[in-house]
Every structure is written in C-alpha cells, then in structure tokens.
Design goal:
ten-stranded mixed β-sheet; alpha/beta; globular; two-stranded parallel ribbon; 291 residues
C-alpha cells in the first residue's frame, strides 16, 4: 500500500463532515481492525486525508462510506490506516467543538488543544495486536499501550505542533471576520493559545473534553465539564490516544461553532447556534485543509 504513495515523510489530515475537500483517487485501506477510505490531497500523494465520519462505515468493496456518528466511527481502523499502513509522520486533526467558556473562547474561535479529558476513560487501544507491546514496542512492532498521554515533554509532538502552527498562522488575515481570537491568542500565536508550549493549569492550557455522543451534553454535564476543560467534542481524544499508542504526533485544531448547552446566548439555543454557524465553519475548515 505505502509503495503506491509519495516518498516519506508523509502526513495525515483527519477532518469531519463539515470539511469539503476534493481528494485524488480514493482508495480502500485494509487494516487489522477494519477497512478505511483515504484520499490524497496533493499530486505527490504525500498528504493523506480521511473524513472521520465517512471513511469506516463501508459496504461492499467500493470506496463509498455512509455517515458514522461519533460513537460508531472505527477509530482503530482510521488511525492504523494513516499511521501504520500509510506511515504518516504526523497527523493534524480538525474537530468541531463547543466552547465551555464563551467569554474566553468565543464562538468562531479556532484553538489548538494541548491536553484532553475523557468523560468516560474507555480503553481505546490497539492492544491484542502482535505489533503492540505493553511498556515497550516489540521488535518489528509499532506501539505500546503504557505511555504518558498528552506528554508536555514529547519533543516530536511539540515539533509537529509548531510546524502546523507555522503553516496555519499565515491564513488568519484572509479569514477576516469569520474567525475570532480567544483570550490569550495573538495573530502570531494563532491558532495556539497563550504559548507555543503546552500549559500546566486551566489558565494557560486548552483542554479538549471528549464526551461520548451522539447527543449534545446536558446543562448539568456542561457545568461539571467547565472545571476540567475549555472545549467539548465527541471524537478527537480517541484519535489522539491511538496516535500516542503508536508514537505518531497528533495536533488537534478545534473549531468552536457553538457555546455549550446552557451557555449559549443564541435565541434558539446551542444546537441551532451550531447549525447557523455550520457553513461559516465549513468555509474556515476547508481553507485550513487547503493551506
């Protein structure tokens, strides 16, 4: 499979249903965990894209996938296809998110997360595959299940995050009023917040809270999550965990398209706010992928 791609290093991009990009020649990748459909975004076939909601729910032998809500996405097949089969050196992920602190991270913000919080710390893992060890990567293997998550000292992850930020910040002027800056963001830092380095507290971090889905969160749940994080989504921490397991840097870019339930000032509430902002966010996410 990898022999038909461009030379290394190769990079992966994971987007959601709001990302509208035209890839080249979609193909179906077989993994030990199921099949996944990928497309190349460049003529050299070095930038590989997967739409997380439309890449693993496959029927027959073709490349057409049906929509998979967050709790149905086959994250193991998705990450293994990019990280192991395509040998991507880093994966940048785009995720729709709700803001837990609308005055600090307003609707329309784009922020890079530096940590994550699992509402239900489920065992999303490649464990059981012979190429995945316990504390050490086995000979000829690809990963291990015991590691430090969201490691602030992981130099490969920090380097990849800086690379992604350096590419994206040039896009900010062209986005104009479609994007708002979060508290602690500057045009030079964007889309990072506070610093290029991960934070150590709620004041200088950006924490992604991963809920289960597919429903939105209750007001009571949101009040509880405000103490743990800054934005809420239903997918990306699972991808992040699996990338860490196989040692591939993962950079999560969150697009805040609504204030969470109970926090929205939209006259029709958080869900309608999300729907109203969907096209604008689609425009921004698509521009980011094309960048």
């Amino acid at each position: 499979m990898a022999s038909s791609l461009g030379h290394e290093p190769r990079f992966g991009i994971i987007g959601g249903s709001g990302v509208q990009v035209e890839g080249k020649d979609p193909w179906r990748v077989k993994t030990p965990f199921g099949d996944c459909v990928l497309v190349a975004l460049d003529s050299d076939r070095r930038v590989i894209f997967a739409n997380r909601h439309k890449c693993t729910s496959l029927g027959g032998s073709g490349t057409e996938a049906s929509y998979a809500p967050p709790h149905v996405v086959n994250y193991q097949a998705l990450v293994w296809a990019l990280a192991v089969e395509c040998k991507c050196a880093g994966i940048a992920a785009l995720g729709s998110a709700g803001t837990l602190h609308p005055t600090r991270i307003p609707v329309g913000s784009v922020v890079v997360a530096d940590d994550y919080y699992m509402v239900r710390p489920e065992p999303v893992t490649f464990w059981g595959h012979e190429q995945v060890g316990a504390f050490d990567v086995p000979g000829g293997g690809v990963g291990r299940v015991h590691y430090t998550p969201a490691d602030a000292m992981d130099q490969a992850a920090l380097s990849f995050r800086a690379r992604v930020q350096g590419i994206l910040k040039a896009l900010l002027p062209a986005l104009g009023e479609k994007v708002k800056l979060a508290h602690g963001q500057t045009p030079d830092l964007w889309p990072c917040v506070h610093s290029h380095q991960p934070g150590s507290s709620m004041e200088d971090s950006t924490v992604y809270v991963n809920t289960i889905g597919p429903r939105f969160e209750t007001r009571a749940e949101i009040r509880a999550y405000q103490a743990a994080g800054h934005v809420v989504g239903m997918t990306c921490a699972r991808e992040w965990m699996l990338c860490e397991e196989v040692g591939v840097p993962y950079c999560l870019i969150c697009f805040c398209d609504n204030a969470c339930n109970g926090l929205s000032t939209h006259p029709s509430g958080a869900l309608q706010e999300y729907l109203d902002h969907k096209q604008s966010i689609t425009d921004v996410t698509t521009r980011v992928v094309e960048q």
